[in-house]
Amino acid sequence: MDGIVKNTGMDRYTGRSNIEYKKDKFTFSSNIFATHILDTNQPTEGGTRNSVISSSIAFAPNVTVRDQNGAYNKDPNNDFIANPVSLLDINDKIYTDKLNFSAGASYEVLPGLKPEIKLTYDVQNAHRSFYVPSTTAYNGNFTHGGTASQSSMRSTGISFDGLLHYDAVFNKKHHVTGLLGYEYYQRDNNYFRAENSGFGTDATHENNLGGGNAPKMSSSKDRRKDISGFGRVDYSFDDKYLATVTLRRDGSSVFGGNNKYAYFPGVSVGWKIDKEDFMAGAADKVDILKLRLGYGQSGNSGIDPYQSLSKYDMTTNGILGQNKVSGATLTNYMENPDLKWETTSQVNLGIDYGFFSRLSGNLDFFVKNTKDMLVQVSQSPMTGHKYQWQNAASMRVWGLEYSLNSTNIQTRDFEWDTQLSFSWTDNEITDYNVTDESTVAALNTIGVIKGERTNSYYTYVIDGIDPSSGSYRFKDLDGDGSITVKDKAILGTPDPRVILGFGNTFKYKNFALDIFFNANFGNKMYNYSAMNFTLPNTFETSNYMVDAMNYWSESNPNSDIAANRANGNGNALYNSRWIEDAWFIRLQNVTLSYNLASIPSLRKIFPTAKIYVQAQNLFLITPYSGLDPELANNAYMSSSENLPAFLPGSVDMNAYPPARTFTVGLNFSF
After folding, report:
1. What is the DSSP secondary-structure string of 317-379?
2. CA distance 146 to 135
3. 3-class SS at 52?
4. How many CA atoms lie within 13 A of 553 on its CB side?
5. How high is the pLDDT of residue 644?
6. Considering only CA atoms, which of 393, 415, 397 is closest in space to residue 406?
7. Which residues, listed in sequence order, are joined to residue 498 by a DSSP beta bridge?
8. pLDDT, tens digit, 9 for 90 and up, residues 67-111
């Protein structure tokens, strides 16, 4: 079955086995999980040369798909726009096999003292077969003669956990649990790709790579290791007063040689108010009432291996020291031996509640302070490098989270339950770890701006159209009479301030109806697709959206669409006109089910069984003009038409739209 775009889809087959064996003080368990996935892809994202979505918009609408000889027609105005139907002939399949195996054993050597070991091994083998027939243009090339590639990736991971558990009660009121642990994790990735083009026939597709005349090969390998030692002690007095102390020492190979390890402590306390004697009179009304207060640190090592090192490009020549070297030169990334853990310190105050056996939930307030943020920062050309990973800034995040579960109606035949979740968050960049102006400017370009929310869109605000050129005019925010970087403004972020979830479950006898809404508020989106197909391009003729007909002219002076893409440095392409409100309310899921186990003859065979019909993504309310406000597919995008090399936030760049799906299913156990 095809996805939203023809010749796209995914087939998935999974299997799982769980085994547990217990005898006296010994416990053994093992789990095996296997998956086979076939992804059938089409080039949906990107530009008009290779994207089905982008070329469908840009291709001349008055041209037939094929000519009288059956060949695909070209766009008569622009050879670089691919015939979108021809792109559907591309064969692009990814075959993935995953296997995860874990086993563990524990033995209680003394009362309350139990050592445990766990071993996990996972492997993923993926193979991609790709072929563009000679009848389909490839990256604007109509004479490539067929382009084929075969690539494979093997990823293996192994982890070992050694744990020592302790659990004891003293004088019936003092309950102490402890945990000492050691973790080791290693992941190895191997990648190989072979490509060729210029085949004499399309008959062999990607299965005869040696038959072309432009062979290319590439391969890579990487490894990361993470090691942790940790301890935790939990104490409870009379099941009323709780305390927890933790300490971790984490190490990761991805950081610089000077800072691979860091310590992360934590402490928390709790008070079960409902257990107090003065609450005895409310025992039939209060199910749970618990206060929590905690402080802790955690580390982030979420970067790829070798980012702290200078790397070599083996395909080009260069100068290393005072010597000319053939086939090896430094790549874009500058080494940073001092690169270290990003550390977040969090304070949390929360309350858990439950009343009348009908209402329950929690409320949490939190403040997070992150220092040594891991940021990829552009470098001066004088360094000989383009980027460097740095611990470049600090950030504060604060907010609250609330959840509510309620049973509104409960009778013998009918029940109505409601689930509500609400979160509000805000943040700001509190400081820089750098002082030079060029690095600060590079951080500002990618939305890391002191005193502002992280990920902020930071660019110019349009102030009408210049009648002498038909190009955008921008507001002089600092009033100095010229437009400079000081006139850029914060125009929001793609990160919502408010996230809502609202669900209801209705049960009548053996029927159940689940309805779930989700919503985001306070977020923006840079609509690159709208800009690209609305703003006239004097260098490239193509089809445009209907809004482009309203571009500025002397007879249409009130338009907010410039007559061209002038204003250099990408300012016409990235400004306030193309950054839109992207809040939304979505009916995410509706499921109607029937409990088949209520039928006596079936219950004897299947203790639990139900049949259901499910619909997802049924409707959307949003002011966003694109296909979907959650469609962002480029946190960073390649530079083009003088746009910055990295744009902050998220970018909707011809992204693949989400599907509206309908499912019929059967769940049972025996």
Report:
1. -EEETTEEETT-EE-SBPP-TT---EEEEEEEEEEEEEETTTEEEEEEEEEEEEES-EEEEE-
2. 8
3. helix
4. 7
5. 43
6. 415
7. 424, 521
8. 999 999 998 888 888 899 999 999 999 999 999 999 999 999 999
State the Cα–Cα distance between residues 461 and 91, nearest whole angstrom. 44
**What letter represents residue 200's amino acid?**
G
Burial of residue 601 (number of CB atoms within 10 Å: 0-12, 13-18, 19+): exposed
Give strand pairing partners of 515: 504, 590
**CB of 124 closer than 8 Å to CB of 188:** no
Contacts with 292 (C-beta within 8 Å, 6 or more apart), sequence order: 268, 269, 270, 348, 349, 350, 351, 352
Contact by Cβ (8 Å): 628, 657: yes
Mean pLDDT of 581-591: 96
* Most confidently predicted of 41-50, 500-509, 544-553: 500-509
CB under 8 Å to 240, separation ≥6 — which residues?
Answer: 271, 272, 275, 276
pLDDT band at 642 (very low <50, low <70, confident <90, very high): very low
In angstroms and rounded to an integer, the radius of gyration of the C-alpha atoms of the chain is 30
Predicted pLDDT at 641: 42
Place of tokens 């502002």: 452
Q: Are 543 and 626 in contact (CB under 8 A)?
A: no
Coil, helix or strand for 604? coil
| Segment holding 532, helix H or strand E | helix 528-532
Q: What are phi and psi of 643, to 5 degrees?
A: -65, 155
Structure-token pair, residue 406:
């309620």
Task: Return d(Cα 16, Cα 74) in angstroms, integer.
Answer: 50
| Cα dihedral 339/342/345/350 (nearest 10) | -170
Q: Residues in the chain, how many?
A: 670
Structure token digits, residue 85: 């139907």
Q: Hey, which residues does 491 pair with through a beta bridge?
A: none
- Beta carbons of 180 and 165 less than 8 angstroms apart: no
DSSP type of residue 71: P
pLDDT score of 638 more than 50 = no
State both tokens at 97: 């096999």
Closest CA to 529 of 456, 583, 578: 578
Residue in 529, 531, 539 with CA at minimum distance from that of residue 562: 531
Torsion-angle region of 338 (φ positive above 0: left; ψ -120 to 50: alpha; else: beta): alpha
Phi-psi region of 576 (alpha: psi -120 to 50; beta: other; left: phi over 0): alpha
Model confidence band, residue 657 (pLDDT cutoffs 50, 70, 90): confident
Compute the distance between CA of residue 337 and CA of residue 334 in angstroms, rounded to an integer.
10
Q: What are the b/e assignments for 619-653, b being 16+ CB within 10 Å? A: ebebebbbbbbbbbbbeebeeeeebbebbbbbbbb
Question: Is residue 84 within a helix (H) or strand (E), and if so which, with residue range?
Answer: helix 84-87
Contacts of 642 (CB under 8 A, 6+ apart): 568, 569, 570, 573
Say which residues have a Cβ less than 8 Å from residue 149's Cβ, sequence separation at least 6.
128, 130, 131, 193, 194, 195, 196, 206, 209
Q: What is the pLDDT of residues 336-367, one digit of tens each?
A: 999 999 999 999 999 999 999 999 999 999 99
How high does pLDDT run on average in the chain? Answer: 88
Cβ atoms within 10 Å, residue 456: 24
Percent of the chain scored above 90 by pLDDT?
Answer: 57
Listed range (320-324, 426-430, 547-551, 611-615) with the worst mean pLDDT: 320-324
